[in-house]
Write a structure and sequence with these properties.
alpha/beta; Arc Repressor Mutant, subunit A; Rossmann fold; 2 domains; 7-stranded mixed sheet; two-stranded antiparallel ribbon; 7 helices; binds 1,4-dihydronicotinamide adenine dinucleotide
Length: 208
C-alpha cells in the first residue's frame, strides 16, 4: 500500500475530482478553486481540500489548483496514468453494454479480453475482441491484464472469481449480486445496482 490510513471515501472521491478537473479543462480553465470545483461536484470545499491533503500538497492559495497538473497528479495516485487492461467475464446483456461503453478510456481502462461459457459466443469477435472460452482463462498477467469485470449470473460468480485469482488478477469489479470470497491481496468492488435502487425511494418526500 503506497498510502496508509486514508479513508476509502477519500479514494472514492478522487475520480470524481478528476472528472471535475476534466470538465474545467474542457471549459478552458487553467486554474480552478476548491469553491468552483465544489459548485460543480456538490462536494464542500473543506472536504475537497481535506481529501487532497491526504495525498500531498496541491494548489496555490489565492490561485487554486492548476487543472492539468492536478488531473495528472490524481491519475498518478490512482495509477490510471497508464492503460489498465481488463478481462470481462460474461458477455450477456450487461457485459455487452460494458464492452460498448466508450467512457472507460478517459480513466485508463481498456477491456482487452472477453470470456464466456456459451459456445455460441465463443470465437466471435465483439468490439474487436475475440470471445474466449472461460475454461481457458489462465495466466492473464502474462498478457498484461491485471483487472477483471465479472458480469455472469450470481451462481457462477464465485467460480469465475476463483479462476481470475488463479490467473493472477488482483482487482475485480463485480456486478453479480454475490459477496465474493477472495484472498486479502485481491481488491473487489461490487456494484449492486438493485441495492442502490432499493435505497432511493427512502429519500422521496412523504406522499410522493
Ligand atoms: P445475462 O444472462 O444476459 O449474461 C450472463 C452471461 O454470462 C452470458 O453470456 C452467459 O453465457 C455468461 N456466463 C454464465 N455462466 C458463466 C460462467 N460460468 N463463465 C463465463 N460466462 C458465463 O446476464 P446479465 O443481465 O448480463 O447480468 C449479468 C450479471 O450482472 C448478473 O449477475 C446480474 O444479476 C448482474 N446485473 C445485471 C444488470 C443488468 O441490467 N443486466 C444490472 C445489474 C446487475
Amino acid at each position: 500500500m503506497r498510502y496508509s490510513k486514508i479513508p476509502d471515501e477519500a479514494v472514492r472521491r478522487l475520480p470524481i475530482y478528476l472528472r471535475g478537473l476534466l470538465i474545467c479543462s474542457e471549459q478552458g480553465l487553467q486554474n480552478v478553486s476548491s469553491r468552483k470545483l465544489s459548485e460543480l461536484l456538490r462536494i464542500s470545499p473543506p472536504q475537497i481540500r481535506k481529501d487532497l491533503s491526504y495525498f500531498g500538497a496541491f494548489g496555490t492559495p489565492g490561485v487554486g489548483y492548476n487543472t492539468t497538473k492536478l488531473a495528472k497528479q490524481i491519475r498518478g495516485i490512482l495509477r490510471i496514468d497508464t492503460t489498465n487492461k481488463a478481462a470481462l467475464v460474461g458477455l450477456g446483456n450487461l457485459g455487452s453494454a460494458l464492452l460498448r461503453y466508450p467512457g472507460f478510456s478517459a480513466y485508463g481502462l481498456q477491456i482487452s479480453a472477453v470470456f464466456d461459457n456459451d459456445s455460441v459466443k465463443i470465437g466471435k469477435i465483439a468490439k474487436k475482441v475475440k470471445v474466449e472460452d472461460v475454461s481457458n482463462l489462465s495466466a492473464l498477467t502474462k498478457r498484461g491484464i491485471t483487472l477483471a469485470i465479472i458480469a455472469v449470473p450470481a451462481d457462477a460468480a464465485q467460480e469465475v472469481a476463483d479462476a481470475l485469482v488463479k490467473a493472477g488478477i488482483r482487482g475485480i469489479l463485480n456486478f453479480a449480486p454475490f459477496y465474493l470470497d477472495v484472498p486479502k491481496k485481491v481488491k473487489v468492488i461490487t456494484i449492486d445496482i438493485a441495492m442502490v435502487l432499493a435505497r432511493l425511494p427512502y429519500y422521496l418526500p412523504a406522499g410522493a
